[in-house]
Amino acid sequence: MDRQTGRQTDRQTDRQTDPERGFQHRGALVSITWTSRAAGMNWSGLESLLSGVNKYSTAFGRIWLSMVFVFRVLVFVVAAQRVWGDENKDFVCNTRQPGCTNVCYDHIFPISHIRLWALQLIFITCPSFMVMAHVKFREGKDKKYESLHHGSHLYANPGKKRGGLWWTYLLSLVFKSGFDASFLYILYRIYHGYDLPRLSKCSLEPCPNTVDCFISRPTEKKIFMLFMVVSSILCIFMCICEMVYLIGKRISKLLRIRHENQRLIFADQHELTDLAPPRSMYRNRKTDPTLTDSQLSLNKREKVREGTTTTTL
Description:
The chain crosses the membrane at residues 63-84, 116-135, 166-188, 223-248. The chain is mainly alpha-helical. It has two domains: 1-54; 58-251, Up-down Bundle (de novo design (two linked rop proteins)), CATH 1.20.1440. It has helices at residues 2-17, 19-54, 59-83, 100-108, 113-148, 164-191, 218-268, 293-312, and strands spanning 92-93, 199-202, 211-214. Strands 1-3-2 form a three-stranded antiparallel β-sheet, with helices on one face. It is elongated and about 95 Å long. The protein starts with a helix and ends with a helix.
């Protein structure tokens, strides 16, 4: 008890005699509090973005989102920032010439890996907002149509990837894969490959001669860099798979529609369907791009039945 009381009194006297230390202690607590709050806000924002984009994504898109937010964002926030935190401080060159170490550091690291990856994550997540904005535009347009036409809807499902939304979604995939590939190329060109040597030679001014410079923890940094590169390549592969899936599904749908149109044209040219209305009745009519194939065929059958009853009467 006496020892604990003595330690507490010593701490109080230290804070009273050294007010700067007390301010530093309180500043550290405040910074920790603000950091935890900011982290919570960031994670809530990422969670809302993930849940919002998942509604309109395919299975490949959900896998892409999981890879981005789990393998890349988590590794970037939790581990990579700590590994590259001492990048400038622990960069050492075997010279005492003023300015030589800073010049060599700027030559070897033109841009920090952390800042480059942060910029990459921002760029690859921005195209997802294009899809969300298009869906919100459709929902607002559908609400206006509903208010003007007494409950009838313009779109059966505003989030269905039909019509213009299909092109927006495909364009977002092109942007995602293009941004990832561009940043991989930039990283390769800046650092002349995906390798971090333990020893680098530098002979720039104001260095007196060729000096040796050493990077702190090069093996650990190389492992994280290769992990981020492989993650980017896998994300590009998933985007390409999703594009192939969407285009293949679109082509198969167009082929089915063409086959059905040919069948209807063949039926119109024969005596079995003399009572059916001609196909010119269905031309130049605006259809909902969000309807499925079964709904479109059902609408066509109902229109054919209506035309048949009118001709019979």
